[in-house]
Amino acid sequence: MSSDEYLQAKAEEILAELNQVLVQLATLRAEYNSVDEAIRRLERLPEADEIFERVGVLYIRRDRDSVLLDLKATKETLEATIKSLEKKERDLRETLSRVASSTQSS
């Protein structure tokens, strides 16, 4: 395998990984927005309102504050994961750029 073929294969590998990261980011951002909207709506509800959480095919009654705590923890986890994937995306783009410039200079 020549160095050009190797670099081309490496670029394709990086591009495939980048595409996976972008799909994961889109999914996580959608979930983050959903959780964020749920938090905002719950915070506007009066304290006495009942909250039902869907667990599989069942709805379980829970108190508002515990649901809010769980949602906020989920939001924090999603934020950390999204930041990590964004860093990975940047790193992959930089690596892809270096590989592409190596291919052009060969």
TrEMBL record:
Residues 11-95 form a coiled coil. One of its GO terms (molecular function) is unfolded protein binding. One of its GO terms (biological process) is protein folding. The keyword Translocase does not apply. Keywords: Coiled coil. InterPro entries: PFD_beta-like, Prefoldin. The keyword Metal-binding does not apply. One of its GO terms (cellular component) is prefoldin complex. This is Prefoldin subunit beta.
